[in-house]
UniProtKB/TrEMBL annotation:
<keyword id="KW-0808">Transferase</keyword>
<protein>
    <recommendedName>
        <fullName>Pantothenate kinase</fullName>
        <ecNumber>2.7.1.33</ecNumber>
    </recommendedName>
</protein>
<dbReference type="GO" id="GO:0005737">
    <property type="term" value="C:cytoplasm"/>
</dbReference>
<feature type="domain" description="Phosphoribulokinase/uridine kinase">
    <location>
        <begin position="86"/>
        <end position="243"/>
    </location>
</feature>
<keyword id="KW-0963">Cytoplasm</keyword>
<comment type="pathway">
    <text>Cofactor biosynthesis; coenzyme A biosynthesis; CoA from (R)-pantothenate: step 1/5.</text>
</comment>
<dbReference type="InterPro" id="IPR027417">
    <property type="entry name" value="P-loop_NTPase"/>
</dbReference>
<dbReference type="InterPro" id="IPR004566">
    <property type="entry name" value="PanK"/>
</dbReference>
<feature type="binding site">
    <location>
        <begin position="91"/>
        <end position="98"/>
    </location>
    <ligand>
        <name>ATP</name>
    </ligand>
</feature>
<keyword id="KW-0067">ATP-binding</keyword>
<keyword id="KW-0173">Coenzyme A biosynthesis</keyword>
<dbReference type="Pfam" id="PF00485">
    <property type="entry name" value="PRK"/>
</dbReference>
<dbReference type="GO" id="GO:0015937">
    <property type="term" value="P:coenzyme A biosynthetic process"/>
</dbReference>
<keyword id="KW-0418">Kinase</keyword>
<dbReference type="GO" id="GO:0004594">
    <property type="term" value="F:pantothenate kinase activity"/>
</dbReference>
<dbReference type="InterPro" id="IPR006083">
    <property type="entry name" value="PRK/URK"/>
</dbReference>
<dbReference type="GO" id="GO:0005524">
    <property type="term" value="F:ATP binding"/>
</dbReference>
Length: 311
């Protein structure tokens, strides 16, 4: 496609990082400590060059949306309704959605216009293992049929409609199932919804067609992208790190993986990637990429190489 015909403006790393000159914010030591806590592998260069300009752009979008809402409220003679601004973050398993979401939360809540930023992950809306087992879907976690998509859409719709208190179920990667916990969202200034399915539509759910999608309630969306070979490597690396950490816990669903040799464990992770997550990427996630308002394209070491912004 010629550049003129693409709906995106494309910035290479250098061009994008130059936009940080217009970011009237620096990071102090407390901020840096907080950001380091999000992910030890995250480099501060990456935060400064890529995510600070991104938080600035988002801040401008939030303010513009607020202005538009105020026009409507003025027209209707209403007071400020405090409707949250909703940002969706999509992309493959292991691309870094969760890290991106937590980082953006930390950066966005530093802006005085929107100090209260909440984060929700769509895995809370996976069906519990009991249902997945009954339906023969245990090896389809993350595929459209593994989610209570109506519950998820209703949740986002409730938050966006300004409801004062909305609850979501919580998934645990450790027990590999839905827990008894709930996540309560109470009228934040910004809600970040992170999950591989946030840009999917009714077409992606032929078993349960629905007319209202998550995207109907998103004010902005980001797709985090990388080549599938890299994604597979990152998935295996994370699996190996979990093996040394969380899987050691005897209550972990994957505790038995700690008994495998190094090579067997790599084989296992590679198999899960091929059979489940890589397949889901090709079939159900990658086709939604061009629905995003902004695409972050990562290269080796998670360094963002290109940023594409919808015109
Ligand atoms: N910006 C980053 N820099 C370095 N490592 C990262 C970055 N983002 C993610 N990672 C690493 O990549 C892996 C996947 O990240 P995660 O946020 O858990 O992905 P997802 O939520 O998409 O499954 C993790 O091991 C994480 O530490
Ligand atoms: C829970 C997930 C489906 C991701 O869900 P999301 O938060 O993106 O909705 C995924 O991390 C997962 O567990 N996939 C199943 C195969 C595996 O164990 O990696």
């Amino acid at each position: 496609m010629s550049d003129l015909l693409t709906p995106y403006l494309s910035f290479d790393r250098e061009q994008w990082s130059e936009l940080r000159d217009s970011v009237p914010m620096t990071l102090d030591e407390t901020d840096l400590e907080k950001l380091r806590g999000i992910n030890e592998h995250l480099t501060m260069n990456e935060v400064r060059d890529i995510y600070l300009p991104l938080s600035r752009l988002l801040n401008l979008y939030v303010k513009a949306r607020k202005g538009r809402t105020q026009v409507l409220e003025h027209f209707l003679g209403q007071k400020d309704n405090n409707v949250p601004y909703v940002i969706g973050i999509a992309g493959s398993v292991a691309v870094g959605k969760s890290t991106t979401a937590r980082l953006l939360k930390a950066l966005l809540e530093r802006w005085p216009e929107h100090p209260k930023v909440e984060l929700i992950t769509t895995d809370g809306f996976l069906h519990p293992n009991k249902i997945l087992n009954e339906r023969g879907l245990m090896k389809k976690k993350g595929f459209p049929e593994s989610y209570d998509i109506r519950g998820l859409v209703q949740f986002v719709a409730d938050v966006k409609s300004g409801k004062s208190r909305v609850e979501a179920p919580v998934y645990s990667h450790l027990v590999y199932d839905i827990t008894e916990d709930t996540k309560v969202v109470q009228q934040p200034d910004i809600l970040i919804v992170e999950g591989l399915n946030v840009l999917q539509s009714g077409m992606d759910y032929p078993h349960d067609p629905h007319r209202v999608f998550i995207s109907d309630f998103l004010d902005f969306s980001i797709y985090v992208d990388a080549d599938s070979e890299l994604l597979k490597t990152w998935y295996i690396e994370r699996f190996m790190a979990f093996r040394k950490g969380a899987f050691q816990n005897p209550t972990s669903y994957f505790h038995h993986y700690t008994k495998l040799s190094h090579d067997e464990a790599v084989q296992t992770a590679s198999g899960i990637w091929e059979e489940i997550n890589g397949k889901n990427l090709e079939e159900n996630i990658l086709p939604t990429r061009e629905r995003a308002g902004l695409i972050l394209q990562k290269g080796t070491n998670h360094a963002v190489q290109t940023v594409k912004v919808r015109k």
